[in-house]
Amino acid sequence: MRTHYFLLIGFIFVTTISFGQSEEETEIRRLEKHWTELLDRGDTTSLLRIWSENYVVNNPNGKIVTPKDIVALMKSGHKFPAVERIIERITFNRNIAIVMGKELQQPASMVADRDQWIPRRFTNVWIKSENGWQLAARQSSRQIVE
User: Contact 91/25 with Cβ under 8 angstroms?
Assistant: First the structure.
């Protein structure tokens, strides 16, 4: 019986190590969800804490924008459509995390039917500093569905 107990504990330990996410990956996944929620709520104060000082976005329209541009747009009353993000891969390189995947963006007409949402590909770059993980760059482009 004791042998079975130790085997079970060993199996759980190995499974957790093999298939579990690292603490950093878990944190990046949490931040990915959190900053999207802040954008949905229009919480520019909290977004400015998550975005690095030199945060830059290459948006789906091919325009490069900064936090100053985004905050001004939000303060003018613009509401960003909802986005459902599917992370496909997170790669770490020292203090940099690169997140890649696909997302569905609600069209400007704000239809709820997800079949009508716009498919896109994205890359988000996070940098770990003394302030923790901050979003440094983002690129998003419309996905061509064949």
Answer: no
